Amino acid sequence: MEKARFKKTPFHFMQYAALKTFCALFGLLPYKTAVWLGRKATGAVRFVMKKRFERSVYDIRRAFPQMTPAEARAVALESWRNMGGILAEFIKLTRMTPEEFKKHCRIIGAEKMLNAQGHTGGIIHIGHFTNWEAFGLAGAIYGVDKAVLAQRVDNPYVDEETNRLRNIFTGRTFYSNNEDKPFFACMRWLKKKKMLGILIDQNAGSSEVWIPFMGRIAAFSPITALLAIKMQVPVFPVRVWREKDGTIVSEVMDPVLPPKEYSMENARQFTKTLVGYYEDWLRANPGSWLWAHNRWKREAEGEAYLKNHPEERV
C-alpha cells in the first residue's frame, strides 16, 4: 500500500514541473523580494483554504485563551505567511555559496554539536518553528555531519527534489513513513557518533505516546526519547527565530541527558521533558510555529485511551 502511495504518476510530474517553474522564477528575484512575495502568497491562501485557516485560529485560541479573537487571527496569519517565507528562503539559500549563506543564517552554540560529533554523537531536538530547514542547511555549512528523520512527501518527484536540496551542503535523510522501519538505521547512525535531527511536534499516526501539549492531549512519537535512552546520547534542543533584518538565527541549547534505564515509562517522561521546550518556544513566539498542521486531531482518541490506561498519563 505504501509503495502504491509513492508511485510516480503523470499528475505528480505536472505538479513537480509547476513547482520547478515556480522555484526558477523565485530564484531570479532578490532575496528579500522573494521572501516578501512568498509571505504574501501563502497569506492570501487563507482565503482559499478557509476551513484550514479557521482551524488554526481555533487551535491558537485553545492554546492561548487569554488572546482576543483578533489577536488569534493575527497569530494565525503570521504563521501562514511564515510558510511562504520558508519556501522562498529555502529556494534562495540552496543556491548560495557557504559565504553568502552565512550572511543570512547563523548558529549560536554550534560548537556544542561539533564537540559531541565524533565523541558521543547526539540528537538534535527541533520543531516546525520559523525556518527549521534553514537550520538543517546551516548545520552542514558549519561542519555538522548530520542526518534528519523526515516524512516522505506523497509526490515522489517533489520528494526527491526536496531531499536533494535539503542535503545540498552534505547530509542524508531517513524516512519515518518508509516501509523499512527507521529506528535501526538511526541507531547505526548514532553509533557512528554523528548528529541526527528529529522533529516530533507533528501528530504521530502510530506508536505514539499521549502527552499534554499546550493544555490538550496530543499524540507524540517517542522515537527521540527511545533512541537517546537506548544509545545513551545527549539531546540538543535547537530554537530558531528571525531577527528584525530577516537573519535566521538558530541557538543550540545545552544538551539534555536521557534516563539510564530503557523503558516506555522513562520514554514517556523524557518525551514530556522535550515537549516542554516546544511549549516554551511557542509561548515566546506563537506566530513562528506551523499552526496549519492539525496537531490535536487525535485529542479525543488520546483522552479515551488515557481514561482506560491512567498509569500512562504523564
TrEMBL record:
Transmembrane segment boundaries: none
Keyword match Membrane: yes
InterPro entries, per database record: LipA_acyltrans
Keyword Cell membrane attributed: yes
Any one GO CC term of the record: plasma membrane
UniProt GO MF annotations: acyltransferase activity
One Pfam match: Lip_A_acyltrans
Main location group: membrane
GO BP, sorted A to Z: glycolipid biosynthetic process
UniProt-annotated location(s): Cell inner membrane
Top-rank taxon: Bacteria
Keywords: Acyltransferase, Cell inner membrane, Cell membrane, Membrane, Transferase
PANTHER family in the cross-refs: LIPID A BIOSYNTHESIS LAUROYL ACYLTRANSFERASE, PHOSPHATIDYLINOSITOL MANNOSIDE ACYLTRANSFERASE
Name by which UniProt lists this protein: Lipid A biosynthesis acyltransferase
Organism lineage string: Bacteria, Pseudomonadati, Elusimicrobiota, Elusimicrobia, Elusimicrobiales
